[in-house]
Amino acid sequence: MRGADPRVVLGLHRSRHERRLLTGALDLGVTALDTSSNYLGFRSHQILARAAGDLLPKFTLSTKVGYFPGTKGAEHSLDPVRLHAAAEQAARDLGREPDLVFLHNPEHSLREAGPHGREMLAQACTALDDAAVKGVCAAWGVASWTPSSLPSLIDTTAPRPSVLMVRAGLLVGARTLDDVDALTRAWDLSRGEIRGMSPFGGSTSAPVWARIDPRVFLREGGQFSRVQAAFMAAFHLPRVDSLAVSTDEVAHLSELVDALAGEVEERTVQEYRSLLRDRSRSQTA
Prior knowledge:
17% strand, alpha/beta, eight-stranded parallel β-barrel, 285 residues
């Protein structure tokens, strides 16, 4: 069994929540686990507790609230009462208080909030901060898939998240990277308070990974696979302290843990970001 390494987070999006995956993760030293109230058709918490409730205390556990079952499928809400109740329900269903509860994709509701967006976001943050104060969870954060609308809506008098979770990796565009930088400044977050997700854009078997060679981002890149190199580059696009990766395969998780020995060439990352910005400007010119 390897020593714990907090840089890799086992995500359960699209996962079957099998016990063997969790035991395999622990053997690899992966002791951070991330899920959401709406995963597996809003059954993730119950299934996780039933399949591996005895293992959950061994993990640093994060989940997300913001999506709710509706008459026409999932619906999103920033209603503070619903968010607080969802955090309480998560703790009951999991059989333990989460270490971290994320406000899940607040931009979903903020798109149509108009002039009330700043107030809505502040109230939602206050609701989760209140849940943490009351011991429903140890801390709270914000997870955003498309953060472009958020920087202009930050109320600096409202509670500040402990962690920001955003997309990371070579497939993230220049605008998203800049938006994350703006959010980081607005909330005065350090790199240790930023978590990345979806470093492969959803799949390591996507055609793009056969067409590019991310090993150019690593020193001595020839010692690593393309998947490993893409994973390590994602720690710098944007700068994050940990990466959540969804998988059902222990072998894939092991490959990523082994990649942590790689060293990223910072100059190459900066050159890549400059190329992304230049391309973005040319497309909008």
